[in-house]
Each structure stands twice: as structure tokens, then as C-alpha cells.
Design a protein that fits this description.
The chain has helices at 32-43, 51-59, 68-79, 110-119, 132-142, 146-149, 159-191, 222-230, 234-243, 285-301, and strands at residues 5-7, 10-13, 18-21, 27-29, 90-93, 97-100, 105-107, 196-199, 208-214, 247-254, 258-266, 271-279. By secondary structure, the protein is α+β, with helices and mostly antiparallel strands. The protein folds into two domains: 5-143, Winged helix-like DNA-binding domain superfamily/Winged helix DNA-binding domain (Arc Repressor Mutant, subunit A, Orthogonal Bundle); 196-301, 2-Layer Sandwich (Double Stranded RNA Binding Domain), CATH 3.30.160. It has a five-stranded antiparallel beta sheet, with no helix packed on it. Strands 8-9-10-11-12 form a five-stranded mixed beta sheet. Mean pLDDT is 76; it is low at 122-158.
Length: 308
């Protein structure tokens, strides 16, 4: 059973993914991976964890963008009211990793947990990721002066009115966004022309077939750009496949922001498949080439040798 923690006056209930402020009773929610990251940092409070350790423990070696970890750290700092510059609670250790300071982290005992549940029961609705509006609201609440929370009860503040106005408009905006996503993913495809697969000219690669998925009406010049970035790697990769009597088929679909890259390795007695979603793939050609080559080689080494 996962233990709960109190971090900088915020009680963290990992079973529901919610944060409860000990003084005001305000509740906040974290996304799935933000919650996992906070749990790993809390269980290792006072210990520096490297980027590789956090990626392994939180994302379990999934292929994620370079900004996934820094973005999750930023979201945790906003939620816990930590200053991104002073970094009192979650600190960035240059060239080493991140650390959650032990003085701000306290493990909650079973008795304390029951007491907190009686005072302000936590909602067990499914956790949702921070969006731009939610993150902005957390930033505004974190920026409120300390004197406001210590003011006498007789003094009224305009902050609750502003917060009510914000939530008044946030709910309709989320509903409209949800409707837009439903139309985009379910309605528009029914009226759009069918997709097709274009095989690229791969005559120079005896063991590699490259196929681009064209999703109409979305048209990109991804095949040309991808060929330019992979041209230095494909001949060497083709020779390695040829030596091991393995063929490779690659299906890819690219937009300006992401590249969906799926490869299938086939030998006379075995086959392996790997799917990757690579964000910002156009920004760094050598890094993209190294990533695809490394993952292909790793998958190739996992294949069983055919004994004849």
C-alpha cells in the first residue's frame, strides 16, 4: 500500500491523486506521471535522483520527449507553491538531477491519515492532467502574499471573487474543448478521404522498406525531410540487417510537431516490432538519427538467432 506524505503544508493522497492544503482545505489534482514523479521524489526525500533514474522509475523507459521531465518538475513546483528560482522544495542539481528536500517532506501515519479524512474527505474522481488554465490558476495562488493568508477573519479579500470568476469560465471552456476534440477525432475522419500508404524509393537498401502513411487532408513533406536526416544512418543499418539475415519494414507518419515511427524486424524464425512517438523531431537531426539507430539495434539484439 502506497504511503501518503505531507509536503509543504500539502497532504498528498496518492490513492486519489489529490493534494489537500492543511490550512485552507483547498484541493488540487496531479496527472498520472506527475503523481508518480512526486511519489518517487518523496520516497527518496533528501537523495539526489538522476534524470535516467527518474525516467526509469516514472516513465519505465518509455520513449518520451526531452522536456517531459522538466515540465513535470515545473508542474509539481507550481502545485506545491515552490519558487522556480529559489527552489526551496524541489531543487535542480546541475549535471546531477533533482532532489526533494527532506525538511519539507513528512510521511503520514495511519492515525494522521484517518484524522485528515474526517476533517476534509478527498474526492476520488479520476485525476486529470494540468492544462494551461489550471496551471495558470496554481501560479496565481502561489503568488499571493503571505499576509493574505494571515489576515484577520473580519477583513474581506477580492481574491475569492476572482477565483470564482476564473472557475466560472473554465468549465464552459473545457466543455467546448472536449466537444472540439470529439468532432476532430470521430466526426471529421468519417468525411475525410481515406488514408493511403506510399512506399518510398528504397532500391538502394536491400533489407529495408520505407513506407509513409498519408492521412488526407493532412499533407506534409515529411518523407523528404526524414530521408535527409536518416541518409547517413540507413546504409550502415542495412548492412547490419543483411549480415544477420533480417529484413525491416518502417511505417511512419509525421506532422510538424511529432513523428510516429513503427518498425518491424523479420528473420526466418522470428519477428519483433517497435513503435515510437518522437516529439519535435525536426529540431535536431543527429539526435533523431542516433535515437532511431540505437533503438533499432537494441531491438535487433533482442531477436533470437535462427539455428539452421
Amino acid at each position: 500500500m502506497t504511503a501518503d506524505f505531507i509536503i509543504h503544508h500539502w497532504y498528498v493522497d496518492f490513492s486519489s491523486g489529490a493534494l489537500l492544503h492543511q490550512n485552507s482545505g483547498e484541493q488540487r489534482r496531479l496527472g498520472e506521471y506527475q503523481l508518480k514523479l512526486l511519489l518517487v521524489l518523496a520516497e527518496n526525500a533528501g537523495k539526489i535522483l538522476t534524470r535516467d533514474e527518474l525516467n526509469t522509475l516514472v516513465w519505465e523507459d518509455r520513449v518520451v520527449g526531452n522536456n517531459s521531465l522538466p515540465n513535470a518538475i515545473h508542474a509539481l513546483r507550481v502545485a506545491l507553491e515552490d519558487d522556480g528560482k529559489q527552489q526551496r522544495i524541489i531543487k535542480t542539481i546541475p549535471r546531477k538531477g533533482y532532489i526533494l528536500e527532506a525538511e519539507y517532506c513528512q510521511r503520514v501515519s495511519a492515525t494522521e491519515k484517518e484524522t485528515l479524512a474526517e476533517i476534509a474527505p478527498l474526492s476520488h474522481e479520476p485525476p486529470q492532467l494540468y492544462d494551461e488554465h489550471a496551471e495558470r490558476s496554481l501560479t496565481e495562488s502561489a503568488a499571493e502574499p503571505l499576509s493574505a493568508s494571515l489576515a484577520e477573519p473580519a477583513v474581506e479579500s477580492s481574491a475569492p471573487v476572482k477565483k470564482q470568476r476564473f472557475w466560472y469560465w473554465l468549465v464552459p471552456a473545457q466543455v467546448l474543448l472536449l466537444i472540439g476534440l470529439i468532432v476532430w477525432f470521430f466526426v471529421l475522419p468519417a468525411y475525410a478521404p481515406p488514408s493511403r500508404v506510399n512506399e518510398l524509393d528504397s532500391a538502394s537498401y536491400s533489407n529495408i522498406r520505407l513506407m509513409e502513411l498519408e492521412r488526407r487532408p493532412i499533407r506534409t513533406n515529411a518523407s523528404e525531410e526524414l530521408n535527409k536526416q536518416l541518409v547517413s544512418m540507413l546504409p550502415q543499418l542495412n548492412q547490419m540487417l543483411k549480415d544477420q539475415k533480417v529484413t525491416m519494414e518502417v511505417f511512419f507518419f509525421a506532422t510538424s510537431m511529432s513523428l510516429n515511427y513503427t518498425l518491424t524486424l523479420t528473420s526466418p524464425c522470428n519477428s519483433e516490432q517497435l513503435a515510437m512517438n518522437i516529439l519535435n523531431w525536426r529540431t535536431n537531426g543527429p539526435l533523431l538519427t542516433a535515437l532511431i539507430y540505437r533503438e533499432t539495434e537494441r531491438k535487433l539484439n533482442e531477436m533470437e538467432n535462427c539455428v539452421r
